[in-house]
Amino acid sequence: MLNKIILVQLLFISSLDLASDNDLAIKTIINDIKTGWETGSGEPFRKNFLDFDGARYFESGGQNEGLDDLINHHVEPEKDALTFLSLEFSGIEINYEKDFAWAVANTRVKGEVRKSEKKFDKAGYQTFLFRKIDDQWKVVHTHSSSRDYNPEKHSH
After folding, report:
1. Strand 100-113 relative to strand 82-97, pairing
2. Checking CA distances to 4, which of 10, 19, 66, 143 falls within 20 to 30 Å?
């Protein structure tokens, strides 16, 4: 009986280690994406996104169709269009179902439009969908939604 209890505990601990390894891998990808947005670099997206026909990425009512569209028409042009961009992901929750995972996060995005010098400060939510392919997690879809930051709504 004691051996069975120890075996169950070891299996539980090893499943926690696997979950924490997966959590670390996914949080690292999310941080890489944050850096890509802030620096206007497509490299983290090419490294961490699964490029496939039919890929779509949504952001506050807009969409990019395919990885090249996301990088060439959204990520990279923002580097020149914005004086600065600051992106935060917090409260990240990750869920797993075999080789599929989804993460939700609170977002805060701040920046300044170079041409108009208009500053923005928005808060909202982000969803990332992942597939594990050849032992690597890859982003297959993202959806972001935000509105003007209101400290009263976010102080709870």
Report:
1. antiparallel
2. 19
Q: What are the CA-CA distances from residue 109 to residues 22, 47, 88, 118, 148 (Å)?
A: 26, 23, 6, 14, 10
Q: What spatial distance separates the first Cα and last Cα of the chain, rounded to whole Å? A: 48
DSSP string, 85-109: EEEEEEEEEEEEETTEEEEEEEEEE
Tokens read off for 65: 């169709």
- Write phi, then psi, for 114 (nearest 5 degrees): -60, -50
Looking at the DSSP bridge assignments, the partners of residue 124 are: 107, 146
Query: Cα 130–81–83 angle (5° rounding)?
Result: 100
**pLDDT band for position 3 (50/70/90)?**
low
pLDDT for position 118: 96
**C-alpha to C-alpha distance for 58 and 76, rounded to whole angstroms:** 16
User: pLDDT tens digit string along 51-105?
Assistant: 999 999 998 788 999 999 999 999 999 989 999 999 999 999 999 999 999 999 9
Q: What is the pLDDT of residues 24-37, one digit of tens each?
A: 999 999 999 999 99
Look-up: residue for tokens 């999310």?
Answer: 30
